[in-house]
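Morning!

This is the sequence you dropped in the shared folder:
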Amino acid sequence: MKIFYINNINHKINTMSNIIKNIIAISVIAFALGLPAQAQTNEKETTSMKEVCSFLKQCGVYYIATVEGDQPRVRPFGTAAIYENRLYIQTGKRKNVAKQMAANPKVEICAYDPSGGKWLRIEATVVPDERVEAKQFILDEYPSLKGMYSATDDNTLVLYLKNVTATFYSFSGEPVVVKF
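The structure's back. Tokens below.
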């Protein structure tokens, strides 16, 4: 009985891992082709920026896609916070992702919550915010970053998202679209 149970758990983990890989691959391809993130059916604007931020935090890690020339680039991120009614993310100015966003500020974010079988795609434009107050707010939200970044250093980059289309998907329901 224990062997069957362990095999069943391993099968579920492998299945979820494949689903996550497929979701990320589809998002990267759609982003590279310039396809919109919003769903074509049943658009609802019933969730808010707070729910988008909460979902990103709940997932812990999300993936952000940028473009370098004609090559899509995807990497994990983990920061999300609302400051002055804007959704912010954070990175370092010296990183390639910062250079890519400076060259083309259009990004796409994909996050997956395996516990609820839901995922989120965000299409947005990033806008750098050089204010020390904004940087400090994000660093206070994520104190573990203070070992690498400071609100007054020349590397910390905080960006807010604008022209956001966020689409929540699940295996059991219709997509829900939020724009802000």
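Headline: The CA atoms of residues 105 and 126 lie 5 Å apart.

More detail when I'm at my desk.
O.
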